[in-house]
Automatic annotation (TrEMBL):
This is Helix-turn-helix domain-containing protein. Keywords: DNA-binding, Transcription, Transcription regulation. Pfam families: HTH_20. Transmembrane segments: none annotated.
Length: 109
């Protein structure tokens, strides 16, 4: 994950971290990588819901997934945390704000 983020990337990162399930996913993966079914059991949520949260975290470059073939020939998708560290301060937000793309900008603004 890049140290310097533009405004859109910063918003994506903050959005990814703004959900309690996503924080729990990072917690569960911080000790070891896990496959989807195992992670769904640990969190007590369905795999489809889990995949939605995993996608957000992958898009923010906080986790990564890889498929592997087990001994039984079954393909399993494993996820792990991409080590990250970021600083959030007023200057960084001010710099990033200048690069945010506003999707629904009102006329006259």
């Amino acid at each position: 994950m890049k140290n310097e983020k533009n405004g859109n990337e910063l918003l994506q990162l903050l959005e990814a971290l703004s959900n309690p399930y996503r924080l729990k996913i990072i917690e569960a993966l911080s000790g070891e990588r896990q496959y989807v079914s195992q992670l769904a059991r640990v969190l007590g949520i369905s795999r489809p819901l889990l995949y939605l949260h995993l996608k957000k975290l992958e898009e923010a470059e906080l986790i990564k997934g890889a498929e592997e073939r087990g001994q039984d020939g079954k393909i399993m998708k494993y996820f792990e945390v991409i080590p990250f560290r970021f600083e959030l301060n007023d200057r960084m937000i001010a710099d990033a704000a200048g690069t945010v793309t506003l999707k629904n900008k009102e006329k006259g603004d």
